[in-house]
Amino acid sequence: MDPTPAQARYWRKNLQLTLTLLCVWFAVTFVGGYFAADLNRFEVFGFPLGFYLFAQGALVAFLVIIAIYVRRMEQLDRRYQQEASPPLSQARGPFSDD
Predict the structure, then answer these.
(1) Are strands 43-44 and 47-48 parallel, antiparallel or unpaired?
(2) Three-state SS across 41-92?
């Protein structure tokens, strides 16, 4: 069974969102870790910046990534659910006049 055009668009947008957020996750986790030694020259609240970013900042970033994913997927679900459902005037039910 081939997907409908709306299903294909939904899946494409889902993949784009997932890949974008995975890139952000990669940047926070690995790129930030790569520069941690350089960042440790600076201090935040008495802690080296590299340590502080990984102890606090990364956790906040991960929560933000999750929140963005949930919110955006809710929007996509609502949008494509409306496209997939027929309008009420075209819906057939047990009491429709055929």
Answers:
(1) antiparallel
(2) CCEECCEEHHHHHHHHHHHHHHHHHHHHHHHHHHHHHHHHHHHHCCCHHHCC
Side-chain-side CA neighbours of residue 24 (13 Å): 17
Is the distance from CB of 62 to CB of 28 less than 8 angstroms? yes
* pTM for the predicted model, two decimal places: 0.72
Question: Which tens digits make up the pLDDT trace of 5-23?
Answer: 888 899 999 999 999 999 9
Give CA–CA dist 96/92, Å, rounded: 6
Residues 83 and 28: their CA atoms lie apart, in Å, by 36
Is the separation of the CB atoms in 52 and 40 below 8 Å?
no
CB 91 within 8 A of CB 47: no
Amino acid identity, residue 50? G
